[in-house]
Amino acid sequence: MKEYGLYINGKWVPSESGQTFETVSPIDGSVLATFPKGTAADVHRAIDAAEAAFPKWKHTPAPKRGEILLRAAQIMRQRKQELGELVTSEMGKVIAEGKGDVQEAIDFLEYISGEGRRMLGETTPSELPNKFCMTVRQPIGVVGCITPWNFPMAIPIWKIGAALISGNTIVFKPSSLTPLCVARLIEILEEAGLPAGVINFVTGGGGTVGMEIVKNPRVKSISFTGGVPTGREIYAAAAQHLKPVELELGGKNPQIVMEDANFDLAVEGVLFGAFGTAGQRCTATSRLIIHAPVYDEVLGRLVERTRSLKLGNPLDPKIDVGPVADEGQKNSILEYIEIGKQEAHLLLGGDLCTGGDYDKGHYIEPTIFETEHGTRISKEEIFGPVLSVIKAKDFEDAVRIANDVEFGLSSSIYTKDVNLAFRAVDMLETGITYINAPTIGAEVHLPFGGTKNTGNGGREAGTTAIDEFTEVKTVFVDYSNRLQKAQIEEEK
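and the corresponding structure tokens:
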């Protein structure tokens, strides 16, 4: 077991609090490492370092910044198996998904490193003669990044990569459930040649470390992924300083299955979408909406296939579903299952696995409810291996049900009718829509984000990745050698 410090100005240092906490594996309760409980004063030290490093990093040519990110990707690729096992050990997702988490981080670093040779602005004609108009992108300064535990390498790298290629310096707070994964990323970035002070890593509680990052006026922008209540609190606190905030929050994602769908494909999709990562994805399929004429057939196939899923130690490649992240997560999911038992029909699962190795971790059976639209389990985010199945009269009814929630992240429809597919793209109120694929599976070169309470309108990854980490400056170059007055009519 390793004892880590805070990472400030290129060095691992203790917190002034002298207190520590443990990161514990949800597989068996083993302690993986210890980290400091940071304080507001520690955040101030991190901001000092980030501010001092900013001018030089800003003026490092963006292609050179990209070279460092690309080296980090190459190191991660060489250590993918080791890093995937770390993700699985600390977070609990099965090993194939643990390595997938790492691969997504690699993919994004490779993608965003190329942005160092683009960083595109605009040129446009002036309304006046002998005048040139353009826009350029500039870094914001010191930015704060706060990330969750469910993708402990991919989501941090989404933020880190975009912030760094844009020329910002970072104060980073990881989830206290998965700090070891992010610490390993910091070590890799250091090995790749990232200068001291450019990224600073402070562990500790959200109320102490997280809110100091948010409220401190020297931190110029915030990027947060997590739950809606915390997102609202961060948005309100940052507003006191008029600082921009990028929020990626919850989801209640629907998969629609129409009567002409490939049923086997649809069932495979919902199994992966609902029970992959034990349902702990913001894009997880938490509602299956089935067209009435084929409801019984699709549901029967789903129940049969779900029974065959293997639950257990996620480091075993034969296991399909691993544990949930911690005791708090376990208790929250079990509370929703009890609510579901009162308001819906439990078809399968619904229990905590006990006995033997199960007692060492947090294992919940894949759970399926039949429910009417409007129940709590059909509208509230559960963030666990719990699926609500709902019957729809027709396409319009399915879309109505899909849209009638507070979230709008991802959606999916299975149909062979191209007309319905394109109508769904137009009508589903989500930031992401899949046709004949599950609600999960984002690719790094495309924008990621949602509508309604899923966020505040921004998008991460893809062509929009650097938007939240850059300011756009408009530049006018007048080479007429005389005063020209835009919008003012000149006398003849």
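(Above: one complete record from the training split.) Residues 95-114 form the longest helix (20 residues).
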